[in-house]
Amino acid sequence: MRAHEILNNPFLNKGTAFTMKERQELGLIGLLPPTVQTIEEQAEQTYEQYLTKPSDLEKRHFLMEIFNTNRTLFYYLFNKHIVEFNPVVYDPTIADTIENYSHLFVDPQYAAYLDINHPENITETLKNAAGDRDIRLIVVTDAEGILGIGDWGTQGVDISVGKLMIYTAAAGIDPASVLPVVIDAGTNRKELLEDHLYLGNHQERIYGDQYYSFVDQFVETAESIFPKLYLHWEDFGRSNAATILNNYKTKIPTFNDDIQGTGIVVLGGIFGSLDITGEKLTDQVYLCYGGGSAGAGIAGRVHAEMVSEGLSEEEAYKHFFMIDQQGLLFDDMDDLTPAQKPFAKKRADYKDAGDMTDLLNIVKTVKPTILVGTSTNPGAFTKEVVEAMCANTERPVIFPISNPTKKMEATAEQVIEWSDGKAFVATGVPSGTINYKGVDYQIGQANNSLIYPGLGLGMLASEAKLLTDEMIGAAAHSLSGLVDPGKPGAPVLPPFEFVADVSIKVAEAVAKKAQEQGLTESKETDMAKAVRDLKWYPEY
Ligand SMILES: NC(=O)c1ccc[n+]([C@@H]2O[C@H](COP(=O)([O-])OP(=O)(O)OC[C@H]3O[C@@H](n4cnc5c(N)ncnc54)[C@H](O)[C@@H]3O)[C@@H](O)[C@H]2O)c1
Ligand SMILES: O=C(O)C[C@H](O)C(=O)O
Ligand SMILES: [Mn+2]
């Protein structure tokens, strides 16, 4: 390989850390400044430069430059500053980079760009993007529902890149074994279609048979080129996400992050809250605000847990209420999604209840103890709503988890203040610590990033053939017992600084459950060892 090919390959490049011996062997003599640096020195220098960047967006650009040139250094640095970099590399700053992707574009970052108009190119695209790398993990998006900011077409590729960065930083998934993929199926965002610098297809989004046939060809091709693949779906639109998951989850090892990942992390946060109060899950009343992919996914997971704790399916559904744009969902509505239907109520049971489209009224009527926001409707959890939650129970669970920051149903600070410190809060973006009346409230981050890296590590280490509901349940349970419930202001989820430990715990739980279910194909039978052996570390 020619010297500059090595220096320009982020998987091989070590920059100033190439030793003199390596420089001689690889033909790099004279191509680098004479001082050989350690990775620690490189990290010190890059971090110093990082600190001079005035905004989070510029900080992210700078870090992406490191990512584009030297992946080992990037992850070394990321691991050292994981709490500080998390909101810069990932949510919420990633939302800004997606909105401005075409105008900010400098590097395709080894992603695979699939074009719905050219199914004949799927094989070549995946092979070109992988090169000679052995791909074990794909994150794919079609970007119809990026976070809470909607349809961004090809620009959504950044969410695939970003999710994979978290996989490696949090769980040590080898960055050479991953592939970010975007399916450009068009976009319904007018401003992109009208922007001549937009880098995606200038056409309206395609749905239906042509779309599903393309997805099918993609899955089939990816499975055949990469036989040990684990396939992660991210930010598909509400009308496709669950359908795609249901099509493939009984056939291949696959995962929908918004539906399943969010379900695990929110159930983990509820466990954390109940650990503190000593209450039972089966005594709770759950109100979902925003019954889309995430909302219905979470409700489905909490419902499954109530059933596994002894309630019948039907009994358990009585504990759930779901609000979407129409208001409280009733079974006579003709526009319910399949995932919403089991949570819809009989209208006759509520005929004297007044207006069932207003969140405050609904909270007063159905008296939930748990309120989870996945609506993308900022500010929906008002002071009155929080106060009404406090009238239902001593310590309500209130999780406004819509992303990014501008979409949150309430801030953590507001919920703490309006509930006089009584509500358990977790948010989708990092919220830091809030001091209220002398108590430091550490706010848990109910973001699927806390668990999907560990889940992936467990899937890859065990080489599980499928991801089952039981494995997902095991992942949620593995989150409890990690925080100290006796401490005032304790978070209900482990802080992100411990994500590496959390990932190992989640991975082991998932791999062991897969083994118990006879689903593992790994030659290693000790799942704890398989998990540790697969973990990659950023070292030269
Ligand atoms: N914290 C996390 O880990 C996490 C994970 C997934 C999604 N989310 C967030 O949840 C939100 C929803 O994501 P999704 O993937 O489920 O999207 P989605 O489009 O599938 O769901 C959003 C739902 O909210 C409904 N809605 C819109 N306006 C509403 C209103 N005023 N009142 C009630 N319901 C309303 C929509 O009809 C839709 O059903 C996003 O902001 C996303 O960032 C957070
Ligand atoms: O990407 C995130 O931050 C979480 C989640 O998958 C989302 O869609 O909001
Ligand atoms: Mn998502």
UniProtKB/TrEMBL annotation:
Keywords associated with the record: Lyase, Manganese, Metal-binding, NAD, Oxidoreductase
Cofactor(s) needed by this chain: NAD(+); Mn(2+); Mg(2+)
MF terms (GO), sorted A to Z: malic enzyme activity; malolactic enzyme activity; manganese ion binding; NAD binding; oxidoreductase activity, acting on the CH-OH group of donors, NAD or NADP as acceptor
EC number: 4.1.1.101
Cofactor note: Divalent metal cations. Prefers magnesium or manganese.
Active site, renumbered: Y90 (proton donor), K163 (proton acceptor)
Residues the record lists as binding (S)-malate: N403, N447
Assembly, per entry: Homodimer.
Stored NCBIfam families: malolactic, PRK13529.1
Protein name (record): Malolactic enzyme
UniProt organism field: Lactococcus cremoris subsp. cremoris IBB477
Organism taxonomic ancestry: Bacteria, Bacillati, Bacillota, Bacilli, Lactobacillales
